[in-house]
Amino acid sequence: MTTNSPAVSKNLLIRFLNINTSGQTSGRNLPLWRQILLQVMCLLILGSVMFPIMYILTLSFSSKTTRPSSLELLPKEISLGAYQQVLDHPTGNPVTFNELLKNSVMLSFGVGAVALLVAVTAAYSFSRFNFRMREVLMVLVFIPLLMPAVGLVTPLYLLLNNFKLVDCGKDVMALMPLFACDGGAKGKLIFNLRDSLLGVGIAMTASALPFAVWNLKGYLDTIPRELEEAAAIDGADSNQTFWKIIMPLAAPQLAVTFFLGFIGHWQEFVTSWLFLSQPKDYTLAMTLYNMTGQYASSIPWNRFAAMAVIVALPVAFVYVALQKQIVGGLTAGGIKG
Amino acid sequence: MALANNKQIQKAKKQRNLLPYYYLVPAFLIMGVITFYPLIYQLVISFTNFETKDLLLGLSSPDLKFIGFKNYIDILTGSLPVENFNFFRVLEFNFWWALSNVMLHVPAGVLIATVLNTEGLWLKKIYRALYILPVVVPPIVVATVWRNIFDEQYGAMNQFLTVLTGLLGQTDPVRLRWLTEFTPPIPGFLPGAPLTLAYYSMMIANFWLGWPFMSVVATGALQSIPRDLYEAASIDGATGNQQFWNITVPLLRPAMIPAAVYGFTLSFNLFNFVFFMTGGGPARSTELLVTFAYNLVRNLRWFGVAAAFAVIIFFIALVVLLVTNRITRATQNYSES
Predict the structure, then answer these.
(1) B286-308, pLDDT tens digit by residue?
(2) Which H or E element spans position A167?
(3) Domain B84-332 classified CATH 3.40.50.880?
(4) Set of chain B residues whose Cβ sits within 8 Å of the Cβ of A126
């Protein structure tokens, strides 16, 4: 009922614009007036799409460190000064851009790779075998998918916070919670798993893993079983089938799953912002967050703009390269009906 | 001899029966430690008053008390000592936010896809390529950039409106307090949950982000509709409009419903976007369940309350999943029904 009103207005709009919505070939060209009407509409949409993009690009290429006082959507100058400054000295903290980049890359690639490796055999098992408890185990694996990342960070924070390396003095180290310093002394904290990239990686894997299993299982289900049956007749055992038949066929999807994970984890913010306290561990997403809002009044907007462009580029690149595969899943499912 | 052979076969069979479980071992080992155990731990501490002072000793902390359902009751009755918090208002806003987004994105996506599918439209390919730009930009970047655009003093939106009103003869600069104004522009639009200007700002930014994806899905589905359907319809004398409603819409439905459901769940838990753009403000008017949960653990450090909140989110997500699954399944087999 609620969806009714947009549908009606769409109908009016279509009638008004007299769009040929059927996609049918009338064989001839569009009448000129209709062409013009549609072109105007397309250009207006294009304007709205390009508005923030041009705005941020213009800002990033500007050398002015003061905030913009009037609207500029086309760069008057191409100054790479802001990019230079961001790359040299991204934040107020003594941390280099390369370190931030390294942290982001390590987290996104590491989590993606680990999740994939662990998930692939589980996905194979769910997709190909019929065994007792299969349904129950599948529900168990997919239950965490229901939980948004925010819903899982609290216990992980508390649990990982227990793992500490403490310097008790006199060249004695203690690994908590297994060992503690003698006499219950507090000692000096050297390493806290919670406050480290490793800890964040572990926490991120917790939500990445079920997704990887789900995504891979969906793909493995589409690989025809005849190939395996043929291999079995030729005397291959299950392990050989898995490595020699399934893995090569699934390779493209493995890559897609990995890169989807990369896109997601590159922007990971929930866990890292909660867990990490030392500037040397910060990621690019955290830095970008720090460059906006009420506490960022000292940061020139051109530098923020340059940072935004830099953070966006790798994701945009991966997306464009994999666009077909990413959207493919949804539309293919739809066509099958 | 025959007996031994039989035994061997049975042994091999038994091994084969165990094989699917072997494949599951790595995933379940890891998930057991970093997913299932934390989820159970979360359930346990949701019944306690876990706070920062208990961090060191965890469940064995002397200050820690089991307080039964107090956390849950406090959350649901809004008696947490937090300003402007009312659970059911946040819940209502959360649902409305997800619903209103999908209700705008899907029709807009379909409409623009049909326009771009018009035979003989000039520059079609260029439009298609540029219109997907919002999809490839990471949402955290989109949110920070739009936050900037909606800045009261230096933001591009007010500057743009100033240009527009300037054309109408107004000379005063527009100074809308997009993200900070608390008085709702349309009072009573959503009874019980005031929609501030910040909500509309987020709607604009998320519309920019959301329709192109729907348009990509719709384009794929449109192109898979067989031409002869339209030819047959026009031989029977159906107008373009009739063809749209009787051929295009029904055949788009199997692709658009899953996309809409996906969009709904995505917007429902759109943490990064909302946190980066408004942080839930002003006065918690744009707070989603996930952003509020994050506030509980990250800023207030009430781990027990945050755990209880996460459990509540889990059950809400479960209900949403069951309902949306039903919708998807009910509309899946249009062609067969």
Answers:
(1) 999 999 999 999 989 999 999 99
(2) strand A164-169
(3) no
(4) 24
